[in-house]
Amino acid sequence: MNRKRLKQDMIGIAYSLPSLILIICFMVIPIIMTFDMSLHNRTLKKDVFIGFDNYTRLFTKDITYQKALTNTFLYVLVLVPSIVFISMYLSSVIVRKSQKAGAFYRGLFYIPTIASGVTVSIIWSWVFNPVTGIANYIISVFGGKGLEWFSGRSTAFMCVCIVSFFCSIGQPVVLYTAALNGIDRGYYEAAEIDGAGPFKQFIHITVPGLRPTTLYITIITAVNAFQIFIPIQLLTSGGPVNSTISMMFMLYKTAFTDFKFGYAAAMGVILLILISIFSVVQFILQRKE
Amino acid sequence: MTQKLHLFRKKRSGIFGTVILVIFALICFFPFYWAINSSFKTESDMFLKVPQWIPLKPTLQNYELMFNKTSFPQWGLNSLLVSAAVTVFVCIFSSLTGYAMAKIRFRGASILFGVIVVTMMLPKYSMLIPLYTILKNLGWFNTYWGIAIPEIAGQLPFGIFLIRQFMLSVPRDLFEAAQIDGAGENRTFISVAVPMIKPAIASLAILTFVRIWNDYLWQVLVSTKKDMMTVPVGLATLQSETVIMYGQVLAGCIVSSVPLIIVFIVFQKYFTKGISAGAVKG
Q: Count of alpha carbons within 13 Å of B222, Cβ hemisphere only?
């Protein structure tokens, strides 16, 4: 019996070994190293232990980082509610369409997710081109004055949000339409008989019925919004005057343009802690459901 | 019953909702339409004051330039090799480990599960800096394995989790029956487990391929030489040049994303399955 147990252990470990080695070498060890690096003043040439100096500098002296921090929270505050509510509403309309039309709309909203952040950012930058872009042409047709898009502070922030919004709604729409099909139609029929209009039905049946899905979508959207990077890198490079800079973008610049690895690692640790808090909250809330 | 459901659906489909849906769908798709449209125009027609909604003199000039004047074909080959290799290895390793975790009672399985859940939840980019220094020290920059191996590791936690979920739903009797018939663990895995979860492996393969094909942040760090760049890295480099050749860049965007969009339309049900399975709580 004992020998059989041992044999099972051996087989189980043998089956897991390739994955285990890769995960340890390229995920677990780097995570531990990030913490260690954040306590060093490490560049290409030197590597000196400095304790928590990187952190104190980030929070007390570095104005750019504080800008990146507030911007990132702004991105989260703008993107998460708009993605959650709009994708929920759109899905509630989609499930009332015929099967074919429903599949069509779901597929359409998923296209930007398939086409990658780089492609979507590039094609939007062509639409928003201040000189020859079609966006400004459309505005001028309606008698408006063209916007400067990427070169204005608030418009640049708006552009990054728009591109990120359309890159992100694919998954929520797929999840919401699946969840909506699971809500008992009887509730709606009963509400209809009681004379509740579509809006009342949405608030009183759809929204509560989708609670677990909404929780999951809120978390993944927030986690992604905290790491917003590609649209900023391709559209604005953080400018004008750092108005679109995010934590992840600044980490990238600090580490791979300025090669201040230690300082950037401290930024990575802060990002990791923020996101972990979100994941833990999700875990606790899901257990409650 | 279906008839009734259909009538019911129709009745509730309000005009207001449909208008909002169509507006969002149009804004979502318009940039793609406009990119496709522009990519078939001549250089001078792209910058007209009053734009042409369809190219009046359609031309393949931008596509020819993209293929002949830039390294785009090489980038495409690199992306294809890396994405295919990562997909194959992620599927094999995830199936093995997912099977072991769900069906073989071995000591340490619960610790392994903990490691997988934690690494799955942690932001991938927080470990970017040490990975960069490790790869630099190994001299793996601008090599295929340098791009691919960390990507495999990065996709494994999700893959193992997904396969484990599906394996758990396969009745244990099936495996026990095979073993009573004298099949060893390897035989049970290959002839019983893998065929049972083929749809899950298909979902995992498609999701992994698309993610790697589209990943940018890791690939831009390791592929710095022009010949070793992947498609997203190459396109982003063209986009960051002082004079952007928009016609060529847009043509590149179209060529790189249209095949994936077609794959998505054909295999939509596998995508949906994979996306929703990832959402199931462990």
A: 32
Domain ranges, ordered by start, for chain B: 2-59, 70-279
Look at domain B70-279 and name its CATH class.
mainly alpha
From residue B177, alpha-carbon distances to A284, B167, B233 in Å are: 39, 16, 50
Residue A222's nearest CA partner among A275, A169, A173 is: A275
Tell me what ipTM this predicted complex has.
Answer: 0.88
> Which residues of chain B have a CB within 8 Å of the CB of A200?
none
First and final C-alpha spacing in chain B: 35
Tokens standing for residue A227: 């790491």
Name the residue facing A234 among B112, B239, B250 (closest C-beta): B239
For A174-194, what is each residue's pLDDT tens digit?
999 988 888 888 888 888 888
pLDDT per residue over A106-135, tens digit each?
999 999 998 889 999 999 999 998 777 888
End-to-end CA distance of chain A: 41
B32 and A115 within 8 Å at the Cβ level: the answer is yes
Q: Work out how many CB contacts closer than 8 A connect A with B.
A: 270
Beta-strand pair A47-49/A40-42: antiparallel
What domains, with CATH codes, occur in chain A?
Answer: 64-288 (1.10.3720.10)
> Cβ contact (<8 Å) for A265 and B271?
no
